[in-house]
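Worked Example 4.2. Read the sequence first, then its structure tokens.
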Amino acid sequence: SALRARSLECLALLGSAAGVHLFRSDATELAQLVTKEYLDDNHRRPEDDAERPAAMRCVVRLAKTLGADFEPFLHTVLPALLSSAEAPKTALYEEDEDDDISAFDQGNEVVVRTEALEEQEMACQLVRLLAEALADGFGPYVEQSLVRIGPVCSNSVAEEVRIRAVTAVPQLVKCAALTGDQAKSQRACAIGIGALLTALETEDDNETRLAILQALRHTIEDGTRIWIGIPLNHDPLRVESTLECFPLLINTSVNPAIISNALLATERAMIQRRAIRLAEAAIDVDYDEERELQDKASSRFEVQGHFLIADALGSLLRTHGAIALCAILEESGWPSRLRDMAQPACIEDDRCFAAYVLADLFDYGLYMPSDNGQHQRKVSIADLAVILRAEPLELLLLVAESQGSAGRRQAAIFGLGRAALRCGFEALAHCLPRILTLLINNLRGKSTRLEENDEEQVDDDDFEDDDDYDNSTVADNAASALYYIIRAHPASLKEDCTAWNIWLDYLPLLADAEEADVCARGLCSAILEQAIPQTLIPQAVAAIARIHIALEQGGYCGTTATDRPSATSSDNRLKRSQAVKPPLITNLTTAIQALQTRQPHEVQLAFTQLPNHLQATLHRLSSSSEGS
């Protein structure tokens, strides 16, 4: 029996490797055999139960091969998997056997067979894999699967089982969303997120808590996403706008306010545990090196957890916009937490948290879709100040101005750039001198190394260490924020050319690919719109030459940045924008041609003043445009 079950699994492995076209007919026949003899209650033999795990693995491989053609077998396969996935039966503790583990259930010590736990863990994993393989074809089975697996997220005695159940929830909710049925998606979100929030409230294992927070973010985004037009075999990037989502969580048992408050309670519990550890380290006479190592490990987990809480709040903002912003900031403790964490006296991790959340408030929280499918301003900076009971730009400046973590300063400066982009020049006018000083100080003296390196390849090795690279991302974000301010109201900054001059001298950006693309294309647009001061035409010509060198060296994703991904920002928006924009080299060619047409003498003079390697790259740029 054991050999037979393993042989069937081996056949499924071989078929998966051969591919669907060669294996489809055999896969269907094999699926019929396995489901009938191992999973169908009317035909299976009790003596074969020990080999059901191998049969289940075989079934999942067949589902991946057959895709939608596997759906007729689901009504036989899924009940067996869900039965195994539910919490195994426990008994009052009698004796401790080698293959058992003991746990406590409502004050009674109970014994659970490890074999049952292993089967439960595997079943949760296989349900997730089945859902992943069948996508929208799994839609009719989502709710019953969530109802039975959801409680396992919090009631299993084994951390490994709880983690498997938790990671199944986002995939099940995604299957409901893929059907395009909003009512089904909403019910799935309510069940799935409800199970995760229950688990988050009761979980005391650090690793499992991190898995819950990650699953919560994925469930919010994948469950509310509009999947129409996205190929099923495409692994989509993160949600970047409320226009990509249905606001399904409104008026449900897991509305944004409920989720926000649950995250706040989790964050407060983390802070309390941290305070207890610090107090024990200071006053406990028995505190030793072993305890110190344990506390450091717990602290590392909770730093990650803090970041994931910020990420989950960001998911609410990405999917529900201003609705989520009001839920987060109104009638909750988050405003006071953010105000406190932004202060210079707060510890670095907390200030990073404040920077991430405030940046997301500006990036995603000020808008919600209107009836015509366009973004409509919903919350102004003045409204945001009332809700926060503090000036939001002032909080970002507090976080950005002091020395310390590059990640914290980068996030705060990114938030200032998004405030300029989303709200316009006027909204920043009351603190513009302070913002400009901050941005210019982060750029001054950091002109691009391409000026001195001639045409040597610029790559990751040019960043001497991680601190060098991280500080470069801070400067890159300062450059893009400065660009947004300059372009929001160029006339007000044209007389004083300091901002323009420093920005042009810094180009191209080498560390952050997304901001590198923004600034390189922004330079070309500014040239075409004649926004650059006339006295700075030589600097603009030199910047075009340096950008072209970086492109020739093969920057990341068609930009001037190296191929090392940014440590703090996803390249989500970048990849999406690159898919619909012309290559950057086209923008450079158009910009230099426009300058040569409008101001040939100034361009020629600027060209003669350039170093040889920059003159050579401009010749190549002109030659490529003539050839095309």
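Now turn to a second chain, presented in exactly the same format:
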Amino acid sequence: FVKDAKTYQLRVMDHKRKELVRSEEIQGLEDSQLHGLTTQTFSIPEELGTLHAKTLSKTIQVQVEFTGLMGATIGTCQINRLDFRSSKPWPYEVTSDNKVVCGIELCVVEDEPLVSSPMLYSSGMGMMQLHQAMSDKDVEDVQHNLSCELLLHSAKDLPAPRTPEMKDVVLTIMSSESGKELRKIGLFQSDVPSGNQLASVDFKETRAFVRDRMYWGGDAQDGAQYIKIAISYGKRSGNATSTEIIGVTDPIKISWKEEKEYIKLWNPDNRRLLGGIYLSYRLVTEAEAVADGTMKSGRVALPQITAPVELERRVSGRTGNFAPGSAEEAIEQAVINAEAQNRALLQRCKKEDSNSPHDFPGMRVNNGWREWDNLDALFESMGPNPLVMSEDLGPQVARGYQHSSNIARDVAKYLPAAKSPADQMLNLEMLRMYVKDDVGKGQSMIRPVVCKDANEITGPPDMTWCPDPPVYVPMTNLTEKDKETVRLACYKPEQNSSLLFVDANPNYNIREDIWGALHPEKTKYKHLQSLAPTHGRVKDDCIMA
């Protein structure tokens, strides 16, 4: 250590470098005690050196720092909690930029001992290593018999081992969600050509089966499991295997479709690319796994996992064009609501006006008969399909919000400000003359988001009323007016939601209605007495038609 430093501090972090706990300031040696030495070695008092942390990470990091005005990081050491040496006082190297700067002696005291890994089994020419099975506390109930079948081919472009004794490779299969080890396979012999700093491993088509939690829906679609694969250099010492991590893959989606690909390995600390692994994978049933012949041995005990769960995917009913809760988002929602309510209001006006036009781009009237340019124009002029918009076959839910109203409060916005308490009482008395219910009583109801008054959203801009994630309410719980607004807002301005008489009665023949031509309401259909324009048909000239 630098001789000018007086105090130090220890920080404990997990494998993602998230701080778990830090020590208080630790006093180093005084300059008079160094006797000219540039480094110092001292013991840490138990009350300062005992740190309590809680984490599921199997790898923890201890960072040594200067404190005070000279505050700076000295270096970091990594401890694998599954390493048998971690449970006893052991010296560790503290490194910075891959250079050893000092050392620290410590031990990890577990409240409950960790289980090293579940029982392993693999087929092929690769070596097999069995570990202690999972404890009853780690075993969970299982509701599916689907497993991931992995066919391991090879690993390429791995960095050469830093420790000459660790030349063999250990492959660990983990759960992507919890990081729990599902399988550990090895040891495999690595190949480092002379003069080359990159190593490769031949897994000799080793086949392995693992079982993890099953997901359905969303990205998982018809079902998938998500795993990660870690590759480490290892050395066997008796019944234990010490490892040195190389890299970890990103989550791998195992689905029913068989895939064969090259998956990159990343340094778990700095996301640096460290080679990759070639493998094939797919989901298989227990019957397929047994028929394959690789799981016939009674030594295989698949870990028990929780019941299948649907993959949670957070959705939002907002556009996402602006920051959540901002004034711009409120103005955008107000514009959306105003446009939808204007479209519905226009259709209500057309419905009340018996002479409202039914003109549409691409449509023309020829001798009283309508003609369209093509079928697309015909169906577009009809608007949304009435069956799709019906309550029985149409949408059953709508995005809603909790609407609160108060007669006195709502009317007060349009009245001049009261100049005295007497004016307030007079306003309330006048309201009671027109309303039988209590004017001060609040009412609450569920309304569609699109029916919210645009003026209430923008003055002042507020989006707290709109639930996010969205809340969907049954259409049957909405008022008839709100249901009609939602239905009519689906029409374009050039469309007409009201049906023409000739569309509602396609088989009506005014020539057969003896009173029809004289009825004042049906005189406008006299043009239907004229014959429709005739067009030559190809089949009229065919003698076989």
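Notes for the reader: Residues 115-143, 294-306 have pLDDT under 50 and may be disordered. Residues 146 and 285 are 5 Å apart (CA to CA).
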